[in-house]
Write a structure and sequence with these properties.
The chain is an alpha/beta fold. Helices cover 32% and strands 12% of the residues. The protein contains 11 helices and 13 strands. Strands 2-8-7-6-5-3-4 form a 7-stranded mixed β-sheet, with helices on both faces. Helix 2 packs across helix 8 (327-339), helix 5 packs parallel to helix 6 and helix 10 crosses helix 11 (419-435). The structure holds pyridoxal-5'-phosphate (PLP).
């Protein structure tokens, strides 16, 4: 991979865009160099071979958002801005709540199921497998309440994992007397091999629960879950995945992974509202016990005062007040917008943007995550010897927004980030590093 020059001249005011990853921007093949098979025959002239050029890069869709031109927003791993139409859906939802006499109960139920169906499409599931929950923590707590593990097993967890995962598993291990086995951050950045080695380590109890993620939330390091799940299954482990930083951008296939539970919220990559998340529950757990008891997850309304049977399907794990007239339409609008683009094309665009950002960081002497483990949309950058909070604030003063997570500058790119944002990042980083 070509990179930008190692040192940037302080005299340069606008940094030229660095070279992009050649895998993403492959040069057009020279079709005239190899004669087509048809051209050498004496028969009628065949139509030309289908063009092998890669499709054009998906453009940025900044125009669908309300981001002022002077703002380069890259803190997408925390909160994404709302597309205009998601905001409009939320405003219509507020109006709906203001006029309850106009409520259409059937349409409200249908909307909740449309939300489930949209969420399920990002992970290869069906609407019946999805519960509507308020947060990832709620989803993980539901999984923990329904997984039976004993003292002779271990719960596998990654060092630095997000608290909505780590705290629940640490609590459960203490409660059940199981071993909490925390995989340390590998020095070479190869999480998949480090986790595999830990799964296979001799002399340890079998893994009862593996708390996993497709990528580290602090720096976007990818984990190859397909490689890990067969040996976990062989030990009888339940596989619980926090899909927060992946769903909508990276492919997740719950059937291929044979996952037990997957949780993800709408307010990050799915471009939706806060306080609405999804819990995928594998069919084998859909007879389980929800955290809350209410009329929505029972076959009858419960007014008789006796315990009514729970509904089948993952709907039994729904939260109370699940028919939120504001968040459900917003979530639906955000997910449908995302679905209107080809996921592979979105991934390619974000990867190209991330590659440019990483090259600017490299050119400034910083250390982005190794391209072998780098996610297309979330990039951790080490700034050794620098004061990270001061660096972030110096960037913020130039209207470039990133975050500090786990000792990294964490930069996330989404569909609204464009080439001008990237150039601003390069300029702002160079200036910021002159003062911190
Ligand atoms: C990896 C990860 N999981 C989960 C969450 C959100 O969890 P919750 O919905 O419980 O607040 C975040 C938010 O930053 C996150 O980065």
């Amino acid at each position: 991979m070509k990179t930008a020059p190692a040192v940037l001249s302080p005299a340069v005011t606008a940094v030229a865009p660095p070279d992009r990853n050649s895998a993403t921007f492959a040069p057009a093949p020279n079709l005239s160099a190899t004669p087509s098979p048809q051209a050498t025959t004496n028969g009628p002239i065949a139509p030309p071979r289908p063009c092998a050029e890669p499709p054009p890069m998906l453009p940025s869709h900044r125009e669908l958002f309300e981001i002022p031109r002077h703002v380069a927003y890259f803190n997408n791993g925390s909160f994404t801005p709302l597309p205009r139409l998601v905001r409009q859906a939320g405003e219509a939802g507020v109006a709906e709540k203001s006029t309850p006499w106009l409520r259409d109960e059937a349409a409200i139920r249908e909307r909740a199921d449309a939300v489930r169906a949209a969420a399920s499409s990002f992970i290869g599931a069906t609407a019946d497998d999805i519960a509507l929950v308020p947060s990832v923590a709620y989803g993980i707590a539901t999984a923990a309440a329904n997984l039976a593990i004993g003292p002779a097993t271990r719960i596998l967890l990654l060092e630095g994992e997000f608290p909505s995962q780590s705290q629940e598993w640490a609590r459960l291990a203490e409660l059940r007397g199981a071993t909490l086995d925390v995989v340390p951050r590998p020095g070479d950045g190869d999480w998949t091999s480090a986790i595999q080695a830990r799964i296979d380590a001799p002399g340890l109890p079998p893994v009862g629960i593996a708390a996993l993620t497709p990528l580290l939330w602090t720096d976007g390091s990818l984990i190859d879950l397909d490689r890990l799940t067969p040996s976990l299954r062989a030990q009888g482990a339940a596989i619980v995945i926090d899909g927060t930083q992946a769903a909508g951008i990276l492919p997740i296939d719950v059937r291929r992974l044979d996952a037990d539970y997957v949780a993800f919220p709408t307010y990050k990559w799915l471009l939706g509202p806060y306080t609405l998340a999804f819990l995928y529950v594998a069919a084998r757990h859909q007879q389980g016990t929800p955290l809350e008891q209410h009329s929505f997850n029972r076959v009858a309304n419960g007014f008789r005062g006796v315990l009514e049977p729970l509904v089948p399907t993952a709907r039994r794990f729904d939260m109370g007040e699940r028919f939120n007239p504001v968040s459900l339409p917003m979530a639906l609008a955000g997910m449908r917008l995302l679905q209107s683009w080809d996921r592979v094309a979105v991934e390619a665009r974000l990867r190209a943007t991330t590659t440019d950002l990483a090259n600017y960081a490299l050119a400034c002497g910083l250390q982005p995550v190794d391209p072998r483990f780098r996610a297309p949309h979330l990039l951790g950058v080490r700034a050794l010897g620098r004061n990270l909070p001061a660096l972030i604030s110096a960037l913020e003063q130039q209207n470039v927004f990133v975050a500090e997570r786990g000792g990294n500058l964490r930069i996330g790119t989404h569909i609204y980030n464009d080439e001008e944002d990237v150039a601003r990042f390069g300029d702002a980083l160079r200036r910021a590093l002159q003062v911190v």
